[in-house]
Every structure is written in C-alpha cells, then in structure tokens.
Amino acid sequence: MKLFLLLGVSSVIGFREDRLDLHHLQPDQFSRVHTLERPKRSAEKSARIRRSSSFPLLRNKREESSSDFNKCSNFDTSKLKEENVLNKFTITNDSNPSISLVWTGDNGHILAVTTYESFVAYPSKLYLSKDGGRNFEDITDRIKNEYIRRKRGAVTATADSSHVVLIVNNHPLGFGETSDIYVSEDEGVSWTRRETPFELSGSQMKFHPKKSSHILATDATTQQLFITTDFCKTWKAVHDSGKTSAFKWDPKNEDIFYYTHDPLGSGRRDRFSMTLYRSKDDGKTSEALTEHVWSFGIQEQFLFVSVRYMAEGDDDVRRIMHVSTDNGDNFRAVQLPAISSEQFYSILDASENMIFMHVDDEGDTGKGAVYVSDSSGTVFSKSLSNNLYPNGDDVTDFVKVDSMNGVYLTSILKDDKGIESRITYDKGATWDPLTTPLNCEDATKCGCEKDENAFCHLQVHCAFSQVKGVSVPEMPYSTNFAPGLIFGHGNVGDGLATDEPDLYASSDGGYSWIRTLKGPHKTLIGDSGSVIWAVTNDEQIDTIKFSFNEGQCWNSFKFSEKKIDITGLVAEPGEKSTDVAIWGWDDEDESWVVFTFDFAKVLGNACSESDYENWEAHQDLKLKNNKSEEGCQLGKKTTYKKLKKDSICFNGKEYEPAKTASKCKCTAYDYLCDFGYYRKDPDTPECVPDPAFKSSGHRDICIGENEEEIVSKGYLKIPGDECDESQLSEAQKQKYHHTISTLKTKCPKQQEVPEDYGMKDSLSWRDFFDIDELDPEEIKSESSNKSAHAGWTIFSILVIGALSGVAFHFYRKSQNASSVVSYRNFTNDDVPALDSAAVQNSAAAGEFRDDSSDEDNDMITA
C-alpha cells in the first residue's frame, strides 16, 4: 500500500520566491550556536504513542536485536567509567524550557543561555563553562537578570566567535523603536550593555565574514538597513527611507556589500520596484546596479540577480536571470529558461567553481530540472530532470557531500509520484541510483522483497521526509575532515518508504554502503572521523554508542542509572572535537543535566604514521572499456592518508587529511553535454542532440535579437576538471573541441526583450535612490493607494467572514488539485496517516544539528 503525502500548497496568486542564497537555512552567525528545547509531555502525546503501537514498524519485525546489531567485540567499555572520562553536571533552580549553547573562541568556553517566552517573557539565566562543558558558573548578574530572546537571541561573529551578542527581549508583545543588547569580546567573560537605534532581531543580522566588528542589520519593523563598524557601539542608516528586502556581504571582497531597496516602502514586490545596490565604503555611499529586481544572491564569485521580463504584447510578467563575476561591474544574461510568475529559480550549490541551479517546471508539479553551469556562470546545461522541489516550500533533498569532491545526493519525483534517490560522483555529469547496501544483499533482511519490488536500491531520506513527518532525525551527514565518510537514514527498495528508517554509512564517498545501525539515530563525527557517536532517536535514553571504524561496528555504554529526556547530542562545531555531551532534562529533579565524555582519554595515544594507510578516492569508479582510468574522477586520481579501520587513536585538532593527486587522460566523462545535447543512455558517455530541444524552437532563450545564434560544441568540460588533454588523439580533440552545430532561432516579436533589461545605463534605467528623488506624481499615487486602503478597512472587516468561507472553498479545491507524493511501504499495508502533531515532533527532531529552527530573513526575498 502507498501512503500519499500532499506536496505543500502554495498561493496561486503572485510570484514564487526565488532561492538564491544558500545560507538562509543556517546563517553564519548561528554556526556555533545550538538551541535545545525541554521535551513537552502531555496526555495527547501519550495517547498518540499508544495508538501508533498497534502498527508495528519495520524494525520491530526483524530477527536481530537492535542493541546487538553490528556490535564490536574487542573493546573494553569500562574505560569510560574511569575518572575524568565521564562527567555529570546539573543546572539547578532553573526551569526555563529553552537553552542555547554558544561555543566562543578556541579555549573551551561555552555559554548556556536559558530562556522562557510565552505571552510574556521571563528572566533568562546565563552560565559560562571554561572547561568544555564539564562545569558551568552562573553569571546571570553580569547581564542584570535580563530577558533574552528565545529565538536567535544569542549570536556570534562569523570572523571571531569570541565576539558574542545577546539580544534583550524589550518588547515581548510587540516592537519598539530601539533595542537593548549585551556584547562580549572576550569569550563571554565580561559583558557591556548597548542600545541600537532600531528594533533588532538576530535573524536580521549579517556579520562580516572577515571583520568581526562589522555587522549589517535591518529594523524588524520598518526594514530600514543599518551598519555598524565598531561592534554595535554606533549604527548608521544606509538609507533614510524605504525598505531593504535582502542584504549580503561579498564573500570574496571584504569591502563590498549588496542590498535590494524599495524607496516606496510598499512591500509590493510584484511591482518589481526594488533596485540592487552595492557599497564599497561601509555604507557611506551606494551605487545602483540593477533595477526591476525580484531577488538576488551572492555565492563565491557569482552575483546573481533575477529581474522583470515583460515582452512586448505579452500580459504575463516573467523573470530572467543575470550573473556577474566582477562584483557587479558587468552582468550577462544566463542561458536558462525565462520563468513565469508560478515558477522559481533556486541555487542548489555554488562551490567548486560552478553552479547547480534548479528551475521549477511549469505548473504546480513539485519538481523541476537541475542545470549546471560553466566556470563563467553563464552557460548552463541540463543535468537532471524531475528533481524534487515542492512549489512554495523551501525544501529540497539536494545535498552536497562534503567528504568527497564532486559528489551530490538528491531525490527525483517519478511518474507514479514515488520518490527515488540519485547520486552523482562527477558534479552532475551523470546521475545514478544508490547501490544495494553490502550487508543487505539478501535484501529481505533490509525490508525489500525482490519479488514485489522493481529493484532494491538504497533510498536516502532528506529534508522533504523530515517535513512530511517521517522519523528522520538528521540530514545526510559528512565532513571534509573525514574523506569518503557519509551517514544517512534510509530504506532499501524502489522508492522512499514511511517505515522507520535505519542508519546507513559509506566509507568511500557513496559508492558502497552498509546498514550500520537499526532504527533512526542522532549521530556526530568526532576527531576528524576517528570516533563516531550515536544515540537512538527516542525520547528517553541512558546509553551512548560509539564506533572507531566509521560505523563498521559499535560499542555501547550505559552512562546513567535512570533514563533522561534527551534534548541534544552536541559537540563543538567542526567535527574535530574529542569531547561529546548529552544534554537532557531530569523530570524527577526538574533540572537541566549534561553528561560530558572526554574521548581523548578513551582513544589513548595520538595517531602515528603506522596508523594511517593510503586510500584512493573513487577507486570504485570503473569506466567501461577503459580499465586504466579506474579511480579517475574530475580528471585526476586523488590519494588520501586515511586512518586504518583497526587503529584506535586520536588525530587532534591540528590534523588535516593529507592527499596527493595525479592527472588522468581526458575521457568523455570529463565533459558535460553542452546546451542542446544530452546523454541518451546513462550507461554511455556520448552526448547526442536533444530532440526535445530542437523541436521546441529554442524559444526559452529568446532574449536577444530577432535571430538568436547559440554556438554549441556538444561537450563542455566540467568546471574544475583537471584531466590532461595533451594525451588526447587528434580525433578526440576534434570531437571535444570543434563546433558541432550553430543553433539559430527566430523569436516572435512578443518574446523579444533587450538582454540588458534592468541593467545600469540601459533604456529601462530610471536611477533613483530615496523616496525624495521619485516623481511627485508617483509618490502621490502611492499615498492615495494607502489612503484608499485605510478607507476600506472597516468594510473589509464586515465582509471578512464571507471571504473566509470563499478562501476555505478554494483552499480545499487546491488541496484536491495538488500534486501528491507516494512513499513506498514494504512491510505493512495498513500504515496510519501521519497526524499533524507527529509531523511537528518529527520536524523538531530533524533540527537536531541545526543551529536554529527559524529561516533567515533573506529567504523571504532571495
């Protein structure tokens, strides 16, 4: 039986949001902050648990005991009972239900801020640990027993985490004209109270990537942009009026920031009234770059801007994308389809000198196409169709694997509405299903019956599953400090299932997998991969699991005589720590409790040269008919020094994975298919003309003259690929470098639009800075609109009941018309529907390693 889950219903009126900022889910200022919530217990929750127990889940039907699965047999866990390995600390006389942990500096300092917000705020408490969380000192008096905001009330500077800001909740029932904050520049030891001349929220702050004293922020009420260059001592308004919708520091040039500004302050983005500005002198002056802006994003060297595009004789306003690689001095229209008001663009990744861009399909389909760019960010080629990305939701399963260059995971939406995982090892040149886990070859052990399913591949759960209430405590997890290592929750079959997932691990960058633990677990990578920690995704625990061989087997240690309500498994961000802590709530004592483990003492000695071995990345990549190029990926063979599976030692914080690389001869796999070409057969590297592109008349790129000329070479070298072209034969050089065809198309007049539309000095340029520089008639018109709006307020209240009924009717209609996604269920034909409370609880669990549960302000506009 399939369980159908509705895709998020989005408004059918107005434009879809573009997602051009990769950091809106995890802003830099929260990268060293973890927020934990005390568990909420209620009769309703207990009843829900009792109801669900009548539906046995997959893991309960298996023969092996979950606690004994992949158990190690050669390690003495009594070491953890030795003195100074395990430490317990209890925070007494503090019933605040939320706690934010802030890692400050590099000396083991941790701040703990407890907060309580309801209809009114309650006094917060502030604690400081100077020994990595083993002991905490109450220093609440240093902030005068203030009320600190629960959501994003503690932030650290990106460039220097010893600089911390605590935001006081001055106005729990509304907004004010100023805000009070406390700042520390010495890792939380001393604090100074300061005032900002506007209402401040942590989500509306952007710290400079290299200068800890420089911060951009907007007024939470008016959205006016301010800047400080002295760590909150003084603030200066960048504009005297209007609203700033999005603002970002340039990641490459420390003197530049960008922002979009609406001088009317109407908030009506459908008028495309925003202008993109650039400042090079800390906001003293600003230069307009682009008008008619819908959204913009800055990633690495790429500055993207989505602008209005309304062709002559066409009533449908569309958007096109421009890119700059010189800080906005010059823009070029990108070779991507123009999109309608019901579609959106989304940058999925912009690392490694190229861009992955999702372009939403027409209609409310919940999917789209992934395009990859050349190194200029201008020429794009289609990489993958049917990429899952629900309309109206900022939820995508696209994940970059940090432990292996060029590897990405995503999900596709199939014709039968099933969801299936895909992986690429070559930056999107080819995509493959994940292999069957090695210890699931007898697939019935992992819940897949080959007689009933088309195939038994590993399916990995990501963000969409978390939102839909599947018990997935975390996203796929990897780090560049542990080459090849990946953890992810999933099931084995021909599509994602709603059954409780198991934890799977790969040590070779996703080529092969094993089922490493039964059931969902929260995990952490420590000491650059020499130790992995895990706890079950249960409400109450008393045991921690750990592995010294990348999840090949696990040890268990019972750290408490009674179970605690777990709120977090945490370690210092960066995956280099040998300390791990379990935070929880003790119901009997009504107090916060933390168990800290010093695994440096458990691991023993520092690793020596004999503890490492050479490991060749992508050694399982076998090119057909070309065995000599095994292990070549992106034009080179990369060899790492990797810890042996049987070595138990610690790497230390100074450890960096050593690697060497040698170039390989170029093959077709070192090239993407150029615009208008595709790989017809996924098992062969040849690029052939795309018949769909040819029959379409190429009208999706009619943004220039009457006749648009597009030169396509059939093959486009993958950005960052380092293969040696000197070893190619003349025939191969001709194949990969000569112009295969020149594509031409005649665009209907109504589709013509100047390629520089909205760019500075173009015919559409208006050039205004603040509201005083606008045409008085336009200001008058806007003012009249506001007055008319006020005049209709009373009438609107009278008819709101009737409108609510109509809205409910259309909402139900849109629900019925929305796309649905079916998850496979291989073990139980009577899967209960997920109730809303279960979805919320699962989503909360999914925030386990996330630094904040809220979205960044930029997501609204970028």
TrEMBL record:
The principal localisation class reads membrane
The record's subcellular locations are: Membrane
Q: What's a GO biological-process term for it?
A: Golgi to endosome transport
Q: Which residues form the VPS10 domain?
A: 115-752
Per the record, its GO cellular-component terms are:
cytosol; Golgi apparatus; membrane
- InterPro entries xrefs: Sortilin_C, Sortilin_N, VPS10, VPS10-sortilin, WD40/YVTN_repeat-like_dom_sf
Bilayer-spanning residue ranges = 790-811
Q: Where is this region: Disordered?
A: 842-862
Keywords associated with the record? Glycoprotein, Membrane, Repeat, Transmembrane, Transmembrane helix
Write out the biased-composition intervals (Acidic residues). Answer: 852-862
Supply the name of the protein.
VPS10 domain-containing protein
